[in-house]
Amino acid sequence: MKSIKFWFVAMSLALVAGSSVAAPADAPEQIVRSVSRDVLEIIRKNDKDSARVRDQVDARVAPLANYNRMTALAVGRHWRNATPEQQQALVREFRQMLVRTYLSALTIYKNARVDVKGSRGGNSSDELDVRTEVFLPGQKPIPLDFSFEKTSAGWKVYDIAVDGISFINNHRNQFNAIVQKEGIDGLIKNLSGRNAAARGNKVASKR
């Protein structure tokens, strides 16, 4: 349950959730719901064209997530030692992995129920945590928190915590182990390989 897929299963469930509490159009809760409705519509209209779905979902989800900060936090202390080119490659591969897993989760877990519990201040005045609970059949509710930051481009997600476990921290441990053994280029190669393997599996499944 601590894999990347579960984090994005949980994220996708919260994205498709409704709330009885009205929120301003620019509030994090409403932003997430609006984007999710569009994503589900993209899937419905293009369910036979996975490449088109991926590209359109990426374009729609991009305004919601701060991929640069998410990648930097996940890579941790090694980020500052990476060259600008390596940082760009890490963000590109990390982003592909997140969108791919997010899309997969959305197509599987669309009927779960999520209760939005409200918001609370984050680590600074420009940060806000949105608290929810995910309800899956036969399981206890799963606490799920979204960490938003207010940037010049609006509110963006930079971390997710499932049952108190941070998405970023979970991947930082994994990435740190890879970098220590294989360096930054090894991490880039690892992420690229995962994405290529996923694309290959999709092509093979269509034959």
From TrEMBL:
Signal peptide: 1-22
Family annotation (InterPro entries): MlaC/ttg2D, Tgt2/MlaC_sf
Keyword Coiled coil found: no
Entry keywords, A to Z: Signal
Pfam family, one: MlaC
Protein name: Phospholipid transport system substrate-binding protein
Organism this protein belongs to: Formivibrio citricus
Species lineage: Bacteria, Pseudomonadati, Pseudomonadota, Betaproteobacteria, Neisseriales
